[in-house]
Amino acid sequence: MIEIRHVNKSFQGQQAIHDLNLTLPAGELSVLIGSSGSGKSTTLKMLNRLIEPDSGSILLAGEDIRRQSPDSLRRRIGYAIQSVGLFPHWTVEQNIAAVPQLLKWPKSRIQDRVTELLTLLQLPPAQYRQRYPHQLSGGQQQRVGVARALAADPDVLLMDEPFGALDPITRHTLQQELIRIQALSGKTIVLVTHDIDEALLLGQHIVLMEHGRIAQQGKAQDLLLHPASDFVRHFVGQSDTGIRLLGLGKVGERVRQGQASGEPIRADRNLREALSLFVTRQVTCLPVVDEHGQASGVLHFNDLLGAAA
Amino acid sequence: MSRLATGLHARRWLLAGSALLAGWLLYLPHSEAWFARWFPELERPLYQQEGFGTLVLAHLGIVTVSSGIAVLLGVSAGLLAGSRFGRAFRPLLETILAISQALPPVAVLAVAAPLVGFGSTPALIALILYGLLPVTQGTLTGMDSVDRDTQAVAQGLGMTRLQILRHVTLPLAAPVMLAGVRTAVVINIGTAAIASTVGAKTLGLPIIVGLSGFNTAYVIQGAVLVALLAIVADQLFEWLEERVTPHLPARAGS
C-alpha cells in the first residue's frame, strides 16, 4: 500500500501539488489521470524520489520512503516510461538485467530471470536475448521496458505513460498484457496516463487529478456514473459515457440461455464490442461462445441496458 | 552499406595504410640510388643523420605522450564542465580553448622555447594545447548527445550518479568523444613535425634540414612518412569507432 500524506510541491513558486492525500491499495492497478500540468507525473515521480516533496510524507508498506537512500529505494520499485529509455548500447538481456546487476544477483539467477521475463512478455528468449534495442519494433521495445521494470521483482511498479508512443493496435495488445501480468503477479502498479479510455480499461482504482488536487477517485463506474464535478463529467466524456460504461462490462455477464444464428461473439469480449456488432449486423440477438468455442448462450440487445447497474 | 561492410571497409584501409607505411620505412634505407636519379644535383640525396625508424618512434612518442595528456586533461575538463557543478564554467572553458586554438603552433613554440628551454618540452606544451580543444569539445558534445530520457530512466532504476556516468553516459558519448581524440591525434601528428624547429627529435628533422639546405629529397622523405602516419592513425580511429558502436544502426553510405 502506498500512502501519500499532506504532500505539497512547488516548482519556481508555482504550486504543482496542493496538500495531496492519497492511498493507493496494494496489489491493485491504480491509474493517475489528468491533463498536462495536473500533477500526475509529479506525483508518480515523488513515489521513487525522482522528485522530493516540499512537505508531507509518503509511506510505502507503512514505511517512510525517506528512510532509504533514493538509489536503494528505486531498486525496489520498477520504473517504465513512455520513451522506453532502453539503453541503446546494451542488448535486450543486459537491459532487463540492469537492476539485478545493481543488486549484484549471481549470474545464473539473472539469466534465468531474463528467460522467465522474456517468456512472460512473449518474446522468445533465444531469438531476442542478444538483440539491440534498434533491432526491435516499438511494441517490442516497450515489452522489454516493462520486463526491465519487473526484473528485480519489485513490490511496486511505476509506469509513466508507458504506451503513449505506440500505435493503437500495439497499445491495445500491451494493455491487455499488462492486465494479464498484473493478475498473474498481483503487483501494485501505478500508471500515469492522459488517455481516459486507457484509464477506464486498466484502472482498478482511478485517480483523476486537476491542478495538483484530486478531482475524484474511485472505480471506473464511480467516475462515469457519479461524476463529482463538471470537470470530471467533462473529462470522462459526457456524450460517450454510456459507451464507456459498456466498455467496462463483459459479454459473459449478460448471457442468457438460448440459441441464435450468425457469427458468435466470445464471452470475454466487452459489451462495447457487442453493441458494435448489434449495430453493424442489424440484429437484436447474438450467439455467445466461451474461450474454447463452446456455445454458451445468447446476448440480447435489451440486456445491454443492464450494464448500468 | 551494412555495418559489416563498413567495418571491413575501415579495416581494409587500415591494413593498406599500415602496409604502405611499413613498406616505405623498409625501402627508405635502400632508396639512395632512386633519389639520386630523381635529384641528380644533390650530393647526398638520402637523409642519414638519424635512422627513419628511430625518427618514427620518436615522433610517435611525442604524439602519444602529448595526446595522452591532452585526453586526460580534456576529458576531465569536459566531464567537469558537463557536470551539474561545472556548468557555470563551460562558456569560460570554451572561450579559453578557442583562443588557444587560434594561436599558430610556431608562435606557441617560439614563446615556450625561451621559457622552458629547447627540446621536447616546448613541443609537448604546444601539442597538448592543440589537442585539448577537440578532446574537450568532443567530450562536451558527446555528453550532450546522450538522450536525457535514457539518463532519467537510469536514475529511476536506481543507478548512482557515478554508475550513470560509467554505464550510460560515457559509453553512449564514446563515439563522439573518440572523434575528438581522433582529430587531436591526427592534427598532432602533423604539428609535431614543426616541433623540430625547437630541437625536438621528430620526423620534422629531415623536413627542416631539407628546407634550410635546399634538399627537396629530405623534405619528401620526412613529409611522406608524416602523411602516412597521419593516414594510418586516422584509419585506426575509424576502426575503433566501429568497435565502440555495436549498437548503432548501420550508417548509410559511409
From TrEMBL, chain A:
Organism in which the protein naturally occurs: Vogesella aquatica
GO molecular function: ATP binding
Domain CBS: residue ranges: 255-309
Domain ABC transporter span(s) in chain numbering: 2-236
Keyword flag Transport: yes
Ribosomal protein as UniProt keyword: no
SMART domains cross-referenced by the UniProt entry: AAA
Name this protein carries in UniProt: ABC transporter ATP-binding protein
SUPFAM superfamilies attached to this UniProt entry: CBS-domain pair, P-loop containing nucleoside triphosphate hydrolases
Key words, A-Z: ATP-binding, CBS domain, Cell membrane, Membrane, Nucleotide-binding, Transport
InterPro entries with a match to the protein in the record: AAA+_ATPase (IPR003593), ABC_transporter-like_ATP-bd (IPR003439), ABC_transporter-like_CS (IPR017871), CBS_dom (IPR000644), CBS_dom_sf (IPR046342), P-loop_NTPase (IPR027417)
Family, as annotated: Belongs to the ABC transporter superfamily.
From TrEMBL, chain B:
Entry keywords, A to Z: Membrane, Transmembrane, Transmembrane helix, Transport
Pfam families noted in UniProt: BPD_transp_1
Domain ABC transmembrane type-1: 56-237
InterPro entries on file: ABC_transp_perm/SBD, MetI-like, MetI-like_sf
Record field: transmembrane: 57-81, 102-133, 172-195, 207-233
Membrane topology of the entry: Multi-pass membrane protein
Superkingdom field: Bacteria
Record localization: Cell membrane
Primary location group: membrane
Family: Belongs to the binding-protein-dependent transport system permease family.
The protein's name in its UniProt record: ABC transporter permease
Organism of provenance: Vogesella aquatica
Lineage, broadest ranks: Bacteria, Pseudomonadati, Pseudomonadota, Betaproteobacteria, Neisseriales
